[in-house]
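User: Assemble these into one structure.

Assistant: Restating your components, then the assembled model:
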Amino acid sequence: MPVADTERSSPMEVTVSGISKQFDRYPALKDVSLKINSGELIALLGPSGSGKTTLLRLIAGLEQPNGGQILFGDEDASQKTVQERNVGFVFQHYALFKHMTVAENIAFGLKVRPAESRPPKAEIRKRVSDLLDMVHLPGLEKRYPNQLSGGQRQRVALARAVAIEPKVLLLDEPFGALDAKVRKELRRWLREFHDRTGHTTVFVTHDQEEALELADRVVVMSQGRIEQVGSADDVYDRPNSPFVFSFIGESSHLPVRIENGAVLFQGQPIGISEPGPDGEGMLFFRPQDVVEVNDGPRLTGKVTASRRLAGARIAELDISDEGAAHHVEIGVPLETRVEIGGELGFRPVHWKIFRNT
Amino acid sequence: MANTSFATGWKWRQASVIPGFGLSLGYTLSYLVLIILIPLAGLVWHTASLGLPELASLATDSRTLNALRISFGTAMAAAFVNAVFGVIVAWVLVRYDFPGRRFVDAAVDLPFALPTAVAGIALTTLYAPKGWIGAWLTPLGIKIAYTPLGIVIALIFIGLPFVVRTVQPVMEEIDRQVEEAAATLGANRFQTIFRVLLPGLFPAILTGFALAFARGVGEYGSVIFIAGNIPYVSEIAPLLIVIRLEEFNYPAAMAVATIMLVISFIMLFIINLIQAWSRKRYGYA
C-alpha cells in the first residue's frame, strides 16, 4: 500500500534513566533504565506485578516517578504534564467516550486543542475518515461505542490515540480483553499498522507469544526490574537469568555441581561439560533440546505422564534421589511409545547453567 | 462493559430464571391503582364535576396563578441549584478520602429524615433579619426570610439528597481510564469535566433534578415557616389549597390541586422522555 506523507509520523526516541516508583512504600519500579529507539516496536513483558504497566504509565505521565528521568528525544519530559507530553495511549478496556460517536471520539484530541492550533472542521472530518480507513473501519463514523465489537472498539481507540500525531504510542495490554482469534488478527494488523505509520510504539503484555511475535525488541521485567532486553531470538535462545529462562517458553531445571569442567547431578556425571571454576549451579534446558541416551553418563527418570502437543510429544519425568524429587519435561519423538512408570534416559544438547552466587 | 445488545423491539416477556412475571406484574398494577391512581382519579373526577367555565375562572384567579408561579418557579430554581451543587457534593464524596467523609456522607441524608417543619423553623431562625445569617445580609439589602428567596433556600435544603443520591452511584461507576484517556489526548481539566464526565452523568443528574423538583413542588412543611405566606408574593400553591380547605371552599381547593397535578405530570413526563432519549444515546439502556 502506498504511504501518504500525512500518515507517517516523525518518530521519537525515548530514554528512561534510573526511574524508580513507589506505591505506599511498596516499590513498583527499582532504578529502571531503558533506551527505546525511534520508530521501534517494543514490548514490555512480565508477570503481573512486574511493574510493566507502571513503566508505561510513567512514560505517559499518568504517574509521577519518585526518581529518575524520562527523555523524549533530547527533551526532559519528566516535568511535563500528561497533556503536554503528546503521547497516544491505548487502554486495555478501550476507555472510549461512550456518549460520543466514533467520529467524535477520534476527533476529540483535535477538537480540544486551543483555537490557534486546532485544524479547521473540514480537515478534522477528513482526518477522521482517513483514520477510519487506516484502522479498517470505514463508514462507522456515526456509530456509538456500545454498538461495536471489542476488536472494533480497540481499533477506534487506536485511531483516537493516533489522531493527535503523538510522539510515542503507548498500548497497555491492548488485546487483553479480546478473545483468542481476534487477538491474533489484531496482533498482525498492529504490526502492519506500525510498519506503515512508523510510530515509536511501546506495548505492555503478559502474553509472551504476543511479545515475541510482534515486537522488534522485548523487555522482560520481573519484580520492578528489567531482567533482559533483546530480540525474540535473544530472550528465547540466550536468556541471561534463571527468571527469563523459565518465564519465556517451556523449560526444566535441576540443581547441579560443576567439578573439573564436568557437570554432575547428585554426584554422577551427566555427560555435559561446563567451563569455569568448580561450584554449584542450576541447569536449565528446554524440552525439545534433549536427546535420548540409553547408556553412559546421562540423566534418568521415571515417566509419570506423557502428553501430546500439536507437533511433539512431551514426557514428564520424576528424577528423584535421596528424598528430593525433581520434575522435568522432555520432548520425545512422536513415534516413540512412552510407558508410564518406565525409565527414560536423556541428555540435554542445548542448556544453560546459572551459577549460584 | 460488553454491552453490545441492540434494540430488538418490544417483547411481552423475556425468559428469566426467576419465575413469577404474571404475579409480580399483577401486583404492581393493583398496587399502583390502589395507592396512586384511585386517589388522583377521585380528585380529577370531582374537579371535572365543577364544569369547565367554573374551573377556568378558579384557575385564572390571580392569587391562584401567583401561587402556582411561585411554587413551580421556586421548585425549579432550587432544583437547578441542587443539580449544580449536589453534583459537586457527590464528586467530593466519591473521589476524595478525607477525615469525616463518612460523617458528611451520612449528613447528606438528614433532610430526608428531619421533620420538614423543624427544617423550616431552623432555616427561618437563621435567615430572619436578626438571625445568624440574616443579620449579615440585611445591611447588604438582601432579604431572605419571608420572601420567595426564602422558599428557594428551604427547597434547596429539602432537595439536596435527591441529587446527591442519584448521581453518586453513577459517578462511582465512572472508569478513571476515561479521564486519563482525555488527558493523554490533550484535554485540560475543564474540557475533561465538561466534555467527557458531565455528559456521561447527564441522565443521572436529570433524574436527581426531576426528583428534587417534584419534591419541591409538593413541599409544604418547611416552606410555610420561612415563606411569610404573603398572598401574591410568597404564598405557595399547597398552602393555598389548605387555606381554601379551611374556608370550606372545596371546589377552589380541588381546582388548584388538579392544575398542580396536570403541570407536574406533564413536566415529569417530559423529563422522563429526555432521560429515555439520553440513556439510549449514551448506551446506558
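Chain A touches chain B at residues 60-62, 81-83, 85-89, 91, 93, 95-100, 108-109, 112-113, 144-150, 157, 160-161, 164 (CB under 8 Å).
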